[in-house]
């Protein structure tokens, strides 16, 4: 799995029960819009933002989705890649911390 870090200037806020990723002026060059997240997306963002081990994230997904480990890893990989393409995450080079 590729490693990611959150882009400086992107904040996660809960507004009217919805989780949103909001870029500030510094991040707006890379992310041109606000992104709504579901519950699992919000939890995933927190894990990346806090640099927490993904083994714990997989446990959360297992409990909430009842999917297989392969399905969960594919789902998370796809979601993170999508956030990177939208500019909210930065994909790290191999071997960087």
The helix/strand order is EEEEHHHE
Widest sheet, order of strands: 2-3-4
In DSSP terms (H or I, runs of 4 or more residues), the helix count works out at 3
* Share of residues in helices: 40-55%
Keywords:
3-stranded antiparallel β-sheet, two-stranded antiparallel sheet, 97 residues, 5 strands, 41% helix, 3 helices, alpha+beta, single chain
General description of the model:
The protein is an alpha+beta fold. The protein is built from three helices and five strands. It has helices at 39-49, 54-65, 69-85; strands spanning 4-6, 10-15, 18-23, 35-37, 89-91. A three-stranded antiparallel beta sheet has the order 2-3-4. Strands 1-5 form a two-stranded antiparallel ribbon. A hairpin with a 2-residue loop joins strand 2 and strand 3 (18-23). The chain is globular, with a radius of gyration of 13 Å. It starts with a strand and ends in a 6-residue tail after the last strand.
Task: Produce the secondary structure layout.
Layout: E1 4-6, E2 10-15, E3 18-23, E4 35-37, H1 39-49, H2 54-65, H3 69-85, E5 89-91
Antiparallel strand pairs: 1-5, 2-3, 3-4
Would you summarize the structure shown here?
With 97 residues, the chain is of the alpha+beta class.
């Amino acid at each position: 799995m590729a490693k990611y870090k959150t882009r400086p200037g992107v904040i996660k806020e809960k507004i009217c029960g919805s989780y949103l990723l909001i870029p500030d002026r510094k991040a707006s060059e890379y992310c041109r819009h606000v992104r709504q997240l579901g519950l699992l997306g919000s939890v995933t963002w927190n894990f990346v933002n806090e640099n927490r081990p993904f083994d714990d994230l997989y446990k959360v997904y297992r409990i909430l989705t009842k999917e297989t480990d392969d399905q969960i890893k594919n789902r998370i990989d796809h979601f993170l890649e999508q956030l990177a393409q939208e500019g909210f995450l930065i994909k790290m080079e191999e071997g960087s911390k």
